[in-house]
Amino acid sequence: MKPVKFLVALITVAVVLSSVSANPYGGWQPIKNIHTYRVQEIAKSAVAMHNWENNFKHRLTLVSIRRGLFQVADGVNYKLDVMAAGGNGLDSKGSMYRTEVHERLGTLELKFFTRIFEGLN
């Protein structure tokens, strides 16, 4: 019986280790489901913070999230490519933006929000 218990324990450890990323801290990882409520809320918050920082001069509205990455550090960093529309000029029809948001202890901080023309690398 002991060899069977050892084998079961060994397989369990192997399964757990295989499911953990080789570098869980510091490396950017793709967000597997950008349609989750939490990712949607982070993207909406990023657009709202951008609007606030620009005194609502060219108010943008989130249209969709195209791609996303996350990084576990002192909290979690999110790098999102979003389509946003509003304001005037090009943005009235929608433009792609890249934003980075840092989440720590339930608070969000906008690192940057900039117009882009291609997806995440």
Automatic annotation (TrEMBL):
Annotated GO MF terms: cysteine-type endopeptidase inhibitor activity
Pfam families: SQAPI
Endpoints of the signal sequence: 1-22
Bilayer-crossing regions: none
Keywords of the record: Protease inhibitor, Signal, Thiol protease inhibitor
Residue ranges of domain Cystatin in the record: 31-104
InterPro entries: Cystatin_dom (IPR000010), Cystatin_sf (IPR046350)
PANTHER family: CYSTEINE PROTEINASE INHIBITOR 5 (PTHR47364)
Entry protein name: Cystatin domain-containing protein
Organism for this UniProt entry: Linum tenue
